[in-house]
Automatic annotation (TrEMBL):
Top-rank lineage group of the source organism: Bacteria
Descriptive protein name: Phage/plasmid-like protein
Pfam families linked to this entry: DUF932
Length: 281
């Protein structure tokens, strides 16, 4: 398969269409194929972002886990680079929830924020064998990640806790249990204020987005009614990942995907994961 000539079709990750255009930074492309072949990964799809400036590929690792309610997640490695040098050549372990195609970066809980991701500056030669060795933690990373997701799926949450969680994720706050009653009052007050102020366009910060994810958590999200997600901390996290990957306002699907994988959207999903894990420690 010629990775340098693939781009996503209609924004769908699972379909690709052949193009007759090449990235100017083709020196990196064969290394991706070498890496996937050496590591036993199966290339599933690939594409470009930012008008061809960023190249990405998703390779399936063969790992898969099913939570209660037949909620399946599969393991992937996201490979990416930028022709203009704005993104280091990156290999990142990622899980994809089948019911909604939500993506979430996987990292080891060993105190290192870089665990589970390998970045190679463009000033350094991309050594597929070395990257393979660094990614040798994949089995352990996947097992630890899915153990955490299982814990989240068993943690029931109240509406107060959900409101506090979304406030923490969107507004970078950290609420104690004692503050959660005040938080849900303020949450619904913000939603009411948003409706009242819609005509003047003076809404509370992140009010519309927080209202959207709350609705998704309460049944409107993809897979929200599965027993793994309904009323659980895992459902809270899935609401955030679905919002970032599929619903967040963006100039285009291209821009949303770029943000979800490499920008502010990725940071929001990481905050969502960290806040959710605080509920089970």
């Amino acid at each position: 398969m010629d990775l340098g000539r693939l781009e996503p079709y209609a924004g769908k990750l699972a379909r690709t269409v052949l193009r007759g255009e090449w990235c100017s930074n083709t020196v990196f492309l064969p290394d991706y194929r070498d890496l996937t072949e050496q590591s036993g990964f199966e290339l599933e799809t690939a594409g470009v972002l930012k008008g061809g400036k960023k190249f990405w590929a998703l390779a399936r690792t063969g790992q898969s886990t099913t939570l209660k309610g037949k909620d399946v997640s599969n393991g992937y490695i996201l490979l990416a680079t930028a022709c203009d040098g704005t993104l280091a050549t990156t290999a990142q372990f990622t899980s994809i929830r089948v019911v909604c195609n939500n993506t979430l970066a996987i990292a080891l809980r060993n105190g290192s924020t870089s665990a589970g991701v390998v970045k190679v500056p463009h000033s350094t030669r991309f050594d597929a064998e070395k990257v393979k060795q660094q990614l040798g933690i994949s089995v352990r990373a996947w097992d630890e990640h899915m153990y955490e997701m299982k814990q989240l799926s068993q943690r029931k949450v109240t509406q107060q806790e959900a409101a506090a969680y979304f406030d923490a994720v969107f507004n970078n706050t950290s609420l104690s249990i004692a503050e959660q009653d005040d938080s849900i009052i303020q949450f619904y007050r913000n939603v009411a204020n948003e409706a009242q102020n819609a005509a003047t366009n003076k809404t509370e910060p992140n009010g519309r987005a927080m209202s959207k994810v709350m609705d998704m958590f309460n049944g409107q999200g993809r897979g929200a009614e599965l027993s793994s997600a309904k009323g659980t901390a895992y459902g809270l996290l899935c609401s955030i990942t679905e919002f970032v990957d599929h619903e967040r306002r963006a100039m285009s699907t291209d821009h949303r995907l770029d943000s979800a994988w490499f920008g502010t959207g990725a940071a929001m999903k990481q905050r969502g994961l960290e806040q959710a894990l605080r509920m089970v420690v």
